[in-house]
Each structure stands twice: as structure tokens, then as C-alpha cells.
Task: inverse folding
């Protein structure tokens, strides 16, 4: 009975510790983070499209202005002068519109990055510098002795024995698999991260954001030292962690 009471007390203390750790981080909900990441991708896509459109349209309008100026020089008159005015006006209008649109998208991008930095779940970069974060979530992986499969995380290249850190407060525990080698997970009430191919572990159990929980290696099915990083919000399937990683590791 005494042992049972002690176990209950320890369990209650662990539960309280989890509440304290999660409350201290106060991250936004997984759905909010997902919405902001999707919005950020949309803004980046719109910015790329605007840049392409601006280059194309600017060339077309500049060519029209040059031709109108040439016509005005060779055939001066009201008609050619009117055309020149029209194309110059069109060029100015487009330049003003594109500039305003670009500034609006940049303001949205900064607002979204600021929100994600303040309220996103990753409070620390999970792999110390120097490192390179691959934007490879969703790619098809083809390696020997394994069926082709979808890559469900972002690979972070770094030298062997580079520290791996908990990206947020939570509970860390290790495991092993032939594919992932030595692995570590960190969990809190928003979800969990899964990191594979470690060469060794650091501190496990209850950890704070930034605690060293392992070291980069190439155990398991790996062709070079790196950390395979997955983010599972709400204990569901993996979602693309690249943008959150980019913010946390900036």
C-alpha cells in the first residue's frame, strides 16, 4: 500500500511537471501553427509569381515604350504622341501596382514569421550549427534493400557528434530501429518530434527547450551523418517541419 501511494505521488508529480513545462512554453495550438505555415507558403508562392509577372510585364511595357518613342521620332504627330502617353501611363500604373503588391506581401511575410517565432512550438533549434536543413518533406526515398517510401520529415545535415537539442519543453525518450538507428522523441501536449540516426543520447526524461538529448550520427539506414527530424502535431501524422525549423534555427 505504501508503495502504491508512493507510485501515485510520483505520477501526480510527473503530471504536474508536464503542466508546468507546457504552461511555461505556452505555444499556440497545432491547428493554428498549421494555418500560419500554410499562409506563409501561400505568401511565398504569391511573391514568386509576382516576381515572374513583374519581370515579364515590365519587359513588355518597356518594349512598347521604346517602340512608341521610335514611332514618335520617325512619324511625329498627335496619334503617335497619344500612343506614347498611353504606354508610359500603363508602365507607371503597373510599376505602382507591383510595388504596392510586393510591399503588402512582404508585410504579410514578416507578420507570419513574427507570429511563428513567438507562438510556434519550436523554442530551440534541434541541431547545433554548422548544419544544413533540407526542404525534402514528401520526397520519395529510394535506397537499397528498402521499398520506395515517402520522406516524412526534414533531414538536417551536420557533423557527427553535433549536439541535438529538445526543440521545446517535454518528455524525451530513446528507442532503436533498423531503419532509424538510435532515435529520440520529445513529447508535450501539442504533439511530439521524432529524431533518428543518432550516434548517442544526451539527457532523457523531463527536459527543457535547448537541453542536449542526443548527438548527430548515421546509425540505421543512413548514407551520411544527419538528423532525420519529424514533427507530429496533436499526436497525428507528420507535417512539414521545414518552416518552423528555419525560424527556430535562424
Result:
Amino acid at each position: 500500500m505504501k508503495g502504491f501511494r508512493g507510485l501515485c505521488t510520483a505520477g501526480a508529480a510527473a503530471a504536474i511537471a508536464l503542466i508546468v513545462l507546457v504552461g511555461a512554453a505556452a505555444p499556440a495550438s497545432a491547428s493554428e501553427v498549421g494555418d500560419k505555415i500554410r499562409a506563409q507558403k501561400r505568401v511565398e508562392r504569391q511573391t514568386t509569381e509576382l516576381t515572374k509577372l513583374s519581370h515579364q510585364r515590365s519587359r513588355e511595357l518597356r518594349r512598347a515604350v521604346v517602340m512608341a518613342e521610335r514611332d514618335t521620332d520617325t512619324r511625329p504627330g498627335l496619334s503617335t504622341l497619344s500612343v506614347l502617353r498611353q504606354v508610359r501611363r500603363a508602365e507607371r500604373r503597373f510599376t505602382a501596382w507591383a510595388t504596392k503588391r510586393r510591399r503588402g506581401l512582404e508585410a504579410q511575410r514578416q507578420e507570419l514569421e513574427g507570429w511563428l517565432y513567438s507562438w510556434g512550438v519550436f523554442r530551440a533549434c534541434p541541431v547545433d550549427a554548422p548544419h544544413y536543413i533540407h526542404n525534402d518533406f514528401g520526397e520519395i526515398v529510394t535506397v537499397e534493400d528498402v521499398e520506395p517510401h515517402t520522406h516524412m520529415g526534414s533531414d538536417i545535415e551536420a557533423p557527427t557528434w553535433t549536439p541535438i537539442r529538445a526543440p521545446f519543453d517535454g518528455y524525451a525518450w530513446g528507442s532503436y530501429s533498423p531503419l532509424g538507428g538510435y532515435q529520440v522523441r520529445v513529447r508535450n501536449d501539442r504533439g511530439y518530434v521524432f529524431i533518428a540516426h543518432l550516434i548517442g543520447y544526451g539527457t532523457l526524461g523531463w527536459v527543457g527547450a535547448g537541453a542536449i538529448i542526443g548527438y548527430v550520427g548515421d546509425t540505421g539506414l543512413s548514407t551520411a551523418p544527419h538528423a532525420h527530424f519529424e514533427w507530429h502535431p496533436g499526436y497525428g501524422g507528420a507535417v512539414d517541419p521545414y518552416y518552423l525549423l528555419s525560424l527556430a534555427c535562424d
Residues 1-26 have pLDDT under 50 and may be disordered. The chain has four helices and eleven strands. The first helix runs from residue 2 to 25. The two ends are 52 Å apart (CA to CA).
